[in-house]
Amino acid sequence: QLVVDRLIKAAVEPDVRRDMDVEDEILSEIESRDTTIMMKNKELELKNKELESKSQELESKSQELESKSQELISKNKMLGNMISLLRKQGLSDENIAKELNIGINKLAEYV
Q: Please, which domain of life does this record's source organism belong to (predicted)?
């Protein structure tokens, strides 16, 4: 009933009609702003999901690199131990390098 009364007043009184038009414009602007905010929020959600995915991917690659680094350290220690053992057995650096298929100048890096 209240709405009907206002509509009747608006039809009769120009000031009320003008006020209602202003209210309609304000509501339209608010709705437009709300729609824009909702769209921006959805964009942000998508970006956040994308960043989270990239972060997980980087974490996985970091763990993989750490694992490979540990493996390399282990192999280098093993090679160093082999070189030391071969030296104790009396082999020359040239023979050790040939036997292990590495450059003679690389032997010092492992011991």
A: Bacteria
User: Where does residue 96 rank: exposed (0-12), middle (13-18), buried (19+ CB within 10 A)?
Assistant: buried
State pLDDT tens for residues 35-57.
999 999 999 999 999 999 999 99
- Other residues' Cβ atoms within 10 Å of the Cβ of residue 107: 19
User: From its phi and psi, is residue 26 left (phi > 0), alpha (psi between -120 and 50) or beta?
Assistant: alpha
Cβ proximity of 26 and 18 under 8 Å: no
Domain count across the chain = 1
The helix/strand/coil state of 12 is: helix
Torsion of CA 67, 70, 74, 77, to 10 degrees: 160
User: Containing domain of residue 73, as a range?
Assistant: 2-110
The Cα 3–Cα 39 span in angstroms is 32
